[in-house]
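Propose amino acids for all 181 sites.
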């Protein structure tokens, strides 16, 4: 990933299962610039976060004219029970992994509020890999988005440590293989 890459995070609030949701996400993703790289994650059912699905889109910061920047911060897919929440564009401060590398590893995402001043606290937690993305725009919903890659057996302990921290929303996500053109 280049240093000038902006990661756009988009959250989806819905009760639709992956088979119902994927075609709707496909339609939504087509609205984005065709040159970006995207990934799509589904929340693991045991965790409770307002976003059932998260998509990530990588942009060069000189080409970060997202098709939805002039739209509201949240919207709905027409005639469907899906709320789209634009979390904003983030710069990567640290990238150790793009996806779980070991069998049995999961991705735990932490959405950190703007009032957090001790980012080193998160670096001291137990994990296999950690990606840290810092808000690039003032309008970002969160100050940081963190991606922890941990063995599934250790995820409960990390989740509890994060939940004790003020201003942190968490969820465990798995990659969904949904291609888009």
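Proposal:
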């Amino acid at each position: 990933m280049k240093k000038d890459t902006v990661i756009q995070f988009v959250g989806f609030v819905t009760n639709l299962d992956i088979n119902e949701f994927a075609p709707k996400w496909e339609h939504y993703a087509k609205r984005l610039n065709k040159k970006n790289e995207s990934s799509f994650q589904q929340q693991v059912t045991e965790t409770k976060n307002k976003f059932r699905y998260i998509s990530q889109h990588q942009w060069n910061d000189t080409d970060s004219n997202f098709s939805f920047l002039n739209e509201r911060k949240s919207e709905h897919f027409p005639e469907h029970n899906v709320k789209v929440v634009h979390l904003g564009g983030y710069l990567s401060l640290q990238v150790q992994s793009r996806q779980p590398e070991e069998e049995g590893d999961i991705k735990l995402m932490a959405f950190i509020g703007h009032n957090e001043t001790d980012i080193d606290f998160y670096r001291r937690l137990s994990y296999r890999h950690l990606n840290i993305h810092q808000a690039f725009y003032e309008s970002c919903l969160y100050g940081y988005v963190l991606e922890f890659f941990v063995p599934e057996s250790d995820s409960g302990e990390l989740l509890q440590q994060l939940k004790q921290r003020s201003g942190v929303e968490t969820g465990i996500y798995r990659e969904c293989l949904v291609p888009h053109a």
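The mean pLDDT is 81. Residues 163 and 169 are 7 Å apart (CA to CA).
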